Amino acid sequence: MARPSRASQQPNLGESIKEAAWRQITESGASSLSLRSIARELGITAPAIYNYFSDRDALVTALIVDAYASFGDCQHEARESHAGPGRELHRLRATGIAYRKWAIDHPHRYLLIFGNPVPGYEPPMQELLPVMMRSLDALLETVGELHALGRLDVEGVPRPSLEPGHRFSVLMETADEAMLSVYAVAMAIWSRVHGLVSLEITGQLPPFAEGGAALYLFELDAVCRQFVLPTEVTADAARFSSND
């Protein structure tokens, strides 16, 4: 039985449990997450945790939801810091820079959602998909704006295929050709920045000037040059089309 008198002394016990879980993950890794250890740290019985999380997997899911929410907030704040027409390229670059900063500031959260899985944990995709998609929305919206302006270079970019049961299938099944182009470029960009960030925070990136920042910014600029057409190019294309 839980001890209501002890639990009542911690009005935000659910949040305290998650904070203790993050400390445990930081110190020992996600694979060592233990409800009993958390209970000992908080001075409660293990069954008291079940009032908030039915089991370890429910706690892991709550941690993943919180991590994605924090990551999504970071991405949207970066995007909104460059609001207004004509600043699409600034928004794209800002979300890329914010991606790396959030990962470096919160490496254990980053690894929980993108890295090593918790042994035996099966993620409930229906519950996680909304926060996962929100974390990508800032990038998708910015790439979509560039496409709508005729500034997105999609030539040669492979289109994603619809595979039943895949986590992205809910997006693909209703996408028209334009949206498939947006998804294709967004996923290509994401995979490139994600790869560098993952190597950096796991200590597998060779040393570069300013840590990983120099190489990351170099790659981010390369991404912008590859996929974003200069305004003068799109203007020339518009004039050529109007003369036909």
Kindly describe this structure.
There is one protein chain. The protein has 244 residues and is mainly α. The chain has 2 domains: 13-54, Arc Repressor Mutant, subunit A (Orthogonal Bundle), CATH 1.10.10; 70-242, Tetracycline Repressor, domain 2 (Orthogonal Bundle), CATH 1.10.357.10. It is 67% helix and 0% strand. It contains 12 helices and no strands. It has helices at 4-7, 13-28, 35-42, 46-49, 56-80, 88-105, 107-114, 125-148, 169-172, 177-201, 213-227, 231-242.
Could you list the spans in which at least 5 consecutive residues all have pLDDT below 50? 1-8, 234-244
Overall shape: globular
What count of structural domains?
A: 2
Instruction: Give, in order, the helices and strands.
Output: HHHHHHHHHHHH
Q: What oligomeric state do the depicted chains represent?
A: single chain
Number of strands: 0
How big is the Rg? 22 Å
Tally of alpha and pi helices: 12
CATH topology label of the largest domain: Tetracycline Repressor, domain 2
Tell me about the biggest sheet? none
CATH architecture of the largest domain: Orthogonal Bundle
Determine the strand fraction and express it as a percent band. Answer: under 5%
User: What do the pLDDT scores average to?
Assistant: 86
Question: What structural class results from the helix and strand content?
Answer: mainly alpha
Helix content: 55-70%
What is the class of the largest domain in the CATH system?
A: Mainly Alpha
How far is the N terminus from the C terminus? 80 Å
